[in-house]
Amino acid sequence: MLGVENRTRTAHRKWPFLLTSSAHDKMSLRASIEEHARVVDRYALLDLSYTLGYRRMAHVSKAFAVSMHRSIHETFVQVESGFSFVERKRGPPTVGFVFTGRGFQWPHMGAELIEYSYRFLDSIRALDRALDELHDGPDWSIEDVLLEQKDSSSFHKAEYSHPLCIAVQIALVNLLADWGIRPAVIVG
């Protein structure tokens, strides 16, 4: 049988993964995380993230962490700093998205999401295709400008920053919707 490292694609070893856990109360939640800490070496991080996020029942007490292969042990050993804990009331949560206008953008914004999330990249490319169809569309692509290096980025110019901020916001909404997170309201 292959070891975990042999079953894990090389590309996945550099990706961050969301690890979730839930239980009926905080004490049970901590016990669950401690149990996972004992066996975390036996599983590929991709499989563990998927199973915890999609194959486990959601309860009132929740914890989550973002971890990578190289830091998984520290995440589970240092539970207080590795995980964030949340208690929620029964019933579906109410979520709202608040987006800023221009002025809060920065070069290379969204670049990691382009690299790590094919859903985010798909949205950016769909927006680029829409701009390409315009008879007076830009001669640059959203994807290219978002991936420009920080020291040579055109992001701070108004003709780039406004459409790029909107593109990142649309791609984020689409990505979160793909994860089942839909807002009750969006304001900007």
UniProtKB/TrEMBL annotation:
Keywords tagged on the record: Phosphopantetheine, Phosphoprotein
Species of the source: Apiospora hydei
Signal peptide location: none
Stated name of the protein: Malonyl-CoA:ACP transacylase (MAT) domain-containing protein
Domain (Malonyl-CoA:ACP transacylase (MAT)) ranges: 97-188
